[in-house]
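Figure 3 (text version): structure tokens given as input.
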């Protein structure tokens, strides 16, 4: 006789909301155990086989069974996470073999030995601790990261710049490859100034595609001093709210979301002063929020993460365009969207 099954969809949704945080920690464990690299080199494999290839000695006799549970999670999907990282196939008599799916490629190490996954999963504890203060952020202001750790997230990034530079370069490499495949707005720029460009890895990708282009990377003096070498790239230390080197193009990549509206307008007006000749454009590449009716849940989720951690503001495309208009640009254009990023142009006639 078949068992009676009674399932409540709403209850499963509630359980999902309260346990979804298991995913980033499971990914972090898989990275520490080198699971993605092992499957990339040797898969498909069972949990037992993976255990024999782990980077450190295994003393727990239950390790294969526990690893199997973790791999089951990374092989599962849900409405919130529709693209699992692993494929699981049942091999007789009752062993699961695991292999990588395309989503897992972002967790493989690049030529520099880093992966996007390391950056994302290592932020999990910081995010959890920061988001504990979300109610206080709403009622009292400020940001959760500062409430938890006593300083701004920008201070944390600067303190750990040596550790994060390689990972951020890896993230940028993936992003710029996708952006440059669909956006050609740098072709009419002679000198491009990247505002807040860290050590210059974003500009180097653009310079490599456009051999005519000259690049100026502006960041805080101690960061600019560590700038990456390139024959057409100059590093300048300074304060972006006070002065920006002259050029006919300015790039603001992932800058505006860190600032309130009035500060963004001030920064954009400073950018205007730097546009002395030529095409005279500011290219904005930044996270954007869809309208609520679009139902794009992952982006709304990211808006809460940003609000709760460092006080940033996720704007709609229309809100970004309003900033350009308030700063006095002649024309404001929404050019394209690449994943979670909107690309806009603010132009002067």
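Below: residues designed for each position.
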């Amino acid at each position: 006789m078949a068992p009676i099954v009674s399932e409540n969809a709403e209850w499963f949704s509630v359980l999902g909301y309260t346990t979804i945080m298991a995913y980033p920690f499971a990914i972090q464990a898989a990275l520490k155990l080198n699971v993605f690299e092992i499957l990339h080199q040797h898969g498909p494999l069972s949990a037992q086989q993976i255990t024999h290839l782990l980077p450190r000695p295994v003393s727990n006799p239950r390790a294969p069974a526990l690893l199997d549970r973790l791999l089951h999670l990374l092989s599962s999907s849900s409405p919130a996470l529709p693209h699992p990282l692993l494929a699981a196939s049942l091999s007789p008599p009752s062993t699961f073999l695991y292999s990588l799916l395309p989503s897992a490629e972002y967790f493989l190490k690049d030529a520099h030995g880093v992966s996007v996954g390391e950056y994302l999963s290592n932020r999990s504890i910081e995010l959890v601790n920061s988001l504990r203060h979300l109610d206080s952020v709403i009622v009292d202001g400020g940001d959760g990261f500062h409430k938890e750790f006593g300083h701004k997230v920008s201070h944390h990034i600067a303190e750990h710049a040596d550790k994060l530079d390689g990972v951020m370069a890896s993230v940028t490499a993936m992003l710029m490859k996708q952006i440059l495949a669909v956006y050609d707005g740098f072709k009419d720029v002679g000198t491009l100034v990247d505002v807040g460009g860290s050590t210059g890895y974003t500009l180097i990708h653009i310079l490599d595609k456009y051999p005519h282009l000259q690049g100026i990377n502006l960041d805080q003096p101690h960061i600019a001093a560590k700038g990456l070498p390139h024959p057409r790239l100059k590093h300048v230390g300074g304060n972006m709210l006070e002065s920006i080197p002259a050029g006919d193009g300015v790039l603001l990549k992932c800058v505006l979301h860190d600032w309130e509206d009035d500060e963004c307008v001030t920064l954009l007006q400073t950018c205007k002063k730097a546009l002395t000749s030529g095409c005279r454009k500011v290219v904005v590449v930044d996270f954007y929020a869809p309208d609520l009716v679009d139902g794009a849940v992952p982006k709304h989720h990211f808006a809460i993460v940003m609000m709760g951690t460092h006080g940033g503001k996720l704007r709609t495309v229309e809100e970004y365009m309003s900033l350009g208009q308030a700063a006095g640009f002649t024309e404001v254009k929404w050019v394209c969207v690449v994943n979670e990023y909107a690309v806009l142009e603010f132009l002067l006639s």
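The mean pLDDT is 85.
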